Amino acid sequence: MDLGAEIADLVDQVPSGRVATFADIAEGLGDPRAAMAVFRILRESPAQGMHRVVRASADLAFPGAAALLRREGVAVSKGQVQDLQQIRWREFRGPRTLASLREEQARMAASVESTDRSPSPERIAAFDLSYDRDTAFVAGVVMDSAGERVLQEVAFETRPAFPYVPGYLAYREFPAIEACFRKLDPAPDLLMIDGHGVLHPARCGIACFAGLRLDRPTIGVAKSLLVGRVGKMPRKAGGWTDVRIDGERLGTALRSGRSQRLIYVSVGHCVSLSMAVRITKRLCKTRIPEPMRRADLLSKNEKRKWKKKRIEF
What is the DSSP letter of 234? Predict the structure, then answer.
């Protein structure tokens, strides 16, 4: 799927003399919450007619848009389109890819298991991706259950085909994670994914996606919150509080160190939330679980080596 090409096609559907908002284009993709992602993708990959896409406030978003819009008969004053609602275009046609992906997430969410498949996982793997524009550097690190010894490391560069859209991280990063996982021998007993599991708008974040596709117990550990209501801040390191969505407990906010910056733990697949929290706490020598911390360092080191080679040549 080429989301960038789909966005360009939607933009091209806006007639001369009319405008659409970023949320309108996102709705054409199937999810109006992707408005900011649409703006970022158009800024990075300009499309014909993108001067006709404006902010919900009617503010122009791209350089040179005012002159082009005036030429098409659109009234513009002080950087804003006048009479937005009268000239707003919303009659889009297309595959609505994000809607299809959200439906897939819903189907997968129904298959997530939250019981412990492996009561004592010994080989725990974590994955991380670092980026330099459209190039990604993926790393996988396997450690023992105590987070004391590194058992295997893998790192390489790749080019993700799917752009970053909040709520759809799995479609961008899972192919690289899977390729990394296939290089690990023997296969790890449990995976820690830098992202959410069921603590996700569709109840199926990248940790669920990876666990289901790779058929491995998986924990989601995220550094920021996508959705949910967090309980009272834990007073001490090692403390935790519930994260709930519509009253349902779907994750835990863990204070893993002295810092008040929490990490967010949730079920990915074939693990209970209590075990997920217990394993994560045990592996936190610093704020971030040790396998994830080492994978992060390895991916960043791979990026540094790549950039150094480019400078040398």
Answer: P
Structure tokens at 162: 């799917």
Q: Is residue 144 in a domain?
A: yes
Burial category of 193 from C-beta neighbours within 10 Å (exposed 0-12, middle 13-18, buried 19 and up): buried
Query: Which pTM does this prediction carry?
Result: 0.89
Residue 173: CB partners within 8 Å, gap ≥ 6? Answer: 129, 136, 160, 195, 206
| Domain containing residue 36 | 3-95
| 64-119 confidence digits (pLDDT tens) | 999 999 999 999 999 999 999 999 999 999 999 999 999 999 999 999 999 999 88
Question: Amino acid letter at 308?
Answer: K
Contact 8, 44 (CB under 8 A): no
Whole-angstrom distance, CA of residue 103 vs CA of residue 182: 27
Virtual torsion, Cα 28, 31, 36, 41, nearest 10 deg: -50
The CATH number of whichever domain residue 185 belongs to comes to 3.30.2170.10
pLDDT (tens digit, 9 = 90+) per residue, 219-240? Answer: 999 999 999 999 988 888 889 9
Structure tokens at 176: 């690289």
Ramachandran angles phi, psi of 4, nearest 5°: -60, -40
Q: Do residues 266 and 245 lie in contact, with contact meaning Cβ atoms separated by under 8 Å?
A: no
Whole-number Å distance between alpha carbons of 118 and 279: 12
Residues forming a β-bridge with 240: 254
Question: Is there a domain that residue 109 lies in?
Answer: no
